[in-house]
Amino acid sequence: GRGPVDEFPFTELPEHYLEHFRLYDPVGGEHANYFAAGLKMADQVVVVSPGYLWELKTVEGG
C-alpha cells in the first residue's frame, strides 16, 4: 500500500528511512510506498508464481 509522504512520521521510524518509502507517481505525485519499502529492505522474498518473480525483477514492477 501507499499513502501520503506527510504521514510517514506516524511510522515512528528515523527520518533517513523515508528514502526507502518514496515513490513518485507521474499521475498522483509523491507517495510513501510501504510494500516497496518492505521489499527493498528484505533479505529474501517469496513469490507466488514465476510470472510475479519476473515482474519484480523489472524496473517498472520492482
UniProtKB/TrEMBL annotation:
Please provide, alphabetically and separated by semicolons, the GO molecular function terms listed in this UniProt record. glycosyltransferase activity
Q: Which UniProt keywords apply?
A: Glycosyltransferase, Starch biosynthesis, Transferase
Question: Mind telling me which SUPFAM superfamilies this protein's record contains?
Answer: UDP-Glycosyltransferase/glycogen phosphorylase
Against Gene3D superfamilies, the record matches this protein to: Glycogen Phosphorylase B
- InterPro entries registered for this protein in UniProt: Starch_synth_cat_dom (IPR013534)
Any one GO BP annotation for this protein = starch biosynthetic process
Describe the location of the Starch synthase catalytic domain by residue ranges: 2-60
> Which pathway does it operate in?
Glycan biosynthesis; starch biosynthesis
Q: Which domain of life is it from?
A: Eukaryota
- Show the PANTHER family listed in the entry: GRANULE-BOUND STARCH SYNTHASE 1, CHLOROPLASTIC/AMYLOPLASTIC (PTHR45825), SOLUBLE STARCH SYNTHASE 2-3, CHLOROPLASTIC_AMYLOPLASTIC (PTHR45825:SF4)
What is the name listed in the Swiss-Prot or TrEMBL entry for this protein? Truncated starch synthase IIa
Query: Which organism does this record belong to?
Result: Triticum aestivum
